Amino acid sequence: MSLPACPKCNSEYTYQDADLLICPECSHEWKEGEQGQADEQTIIKDAVGNFLVDGDTVTVIKDLKIKGSSSVVKVGTKVKNIRLVADSSDGHDIDCKIDGIGQMKLKSEFVKKA
């Protein structure tokens, strides 16, 4: 019996657990009859191509100036428990809280999965 590819990332390494199919690459879960009804959530990758999911910890790979402030998010800053924002018109697809700075949005192209 051949299992279908993941409808979210098209990985062929899916496996079955009870009545769910699971993708080990992007952690997407779906029921067998739902493969044509993939989540419309955009796949978000970091600067080196790793898949990001809610709750991940990432590291900033470039000094980022904060608009309207003299503060800077330095290279190597760890950001824990990120939340992905799929429909962002300005490209800021990560919502997070950075210690010492507060709540802000980041672009996934400037972070690397820790």
From TrEMBL:
Domain Protein YjdM C-terminal: from-to ranges: 44-114
Lineage: superkingdom: Bacteria
Domain Protein YjdM N-terminal: start-end pairs: 2-30
SUPFAM superfamilies to which the protein is assigned, alphabetical: Prokaryotic SH3-related domain, Zinc beta-ribbon
Pfam families in the cross-refs: YjdM, Zn_Ribbon_YjdM
Similarity annotation: Belongs to the YjdM family.
Protein name: Alkylphosphonate utilization protein
Organism for this UniProt entry: Acinetobacter wuhouensis
